[in-house]
């Protein structure tokens, strides 16, 4: 698989929707994760990321303008011991609770499918990072409708053991803008990850569509110590 230029992937797509990037820095010292949200409607754009424990939660920027909290208010990031969960919906809680009961990432997601927002039927995208005793692996999942039909759910899991330094994978909800919005296709895209969390944060935020971007979360976790750094950018401030 050819490595894609992440900046170009974002710059050339006005509406990838919500996206997850997970990988490893070139020096091999940090696991990296990023999650961004975008919005076309006033309700979707009326959000910010706020820290909640070791994770984050979406929150209405102006509560008086919140129309429908379903599908847009949730915890995208939660931490369960040495596992960090990143998703685009409330399946974060499903994975957390399932893995806390000794289910696997994939088994936990068996209880869920794509979002009930026809005609888009937005895919549920999820990632799990596992860091233990200096080792690191991650997996990503997408649950999507069967070519736009809600009659079937297609389930794909991609596991990355001993990920290569400097490499990451990018998955997002939509191939681009449209009505209905076309679901992501194929496996997660191979992209580069920089050593600097500041550089990674700026690369992502500066190349997301200015009109549609809403919030960005980035975290670097030191593979040997488990210590982490977090960056959050909200368009609404």
Description:
By secondary structure, the protein is of the alpha+beta class. The protein has a single domain (6-234), classed as 4-Layer Sandwich (Glutamine Phosphoribosylpyrophosphate, subunit 1, domain 1). The protein has 5 helices and 13 strands. Strands 11-10-1-2-12-13 form a 6-stranded antiparallel sheet, with helices on one face. Strands 5-6-7-8-9 form a 5-stranded antiparallel sheet, with helices on one face. The chain is globular. The protein starts with 5 loop residues before the first helix and ends with a strand. The mean pLDDT is 97.
The fraction of residues assigned to DSSP E strands is 35-45%
- CATH class annotation: Alpha Beta
First-last Cα distance: 39 Å
Overall domain count: 1
The biggest beta sheet is recorded as: 6 strands, antiparallel
Rounded mean pLDDT score = 97
Under the CATH scheme, the architecture is: 4-Layer Sandwich
Q: How is the secondary structure organized here?
A:
Elements (H helix, E strand, L loop, with lengths): L5 H6 L7 E6 L5 E9 L3 H4 L1 E6 L2 E6 L16 E4 L2 E5 L3 H10 L4 H5 L14 E9 L2 E12 L2 E13 L5 E6 L16 E4 L4 H11 L5 E10 L5 E7 L3
Antiparallel strand pairs: 1-2, 1-10, 2-12, 3-4, 5-6, 6-7, 7-8, 8-9, 10-11, 12-13
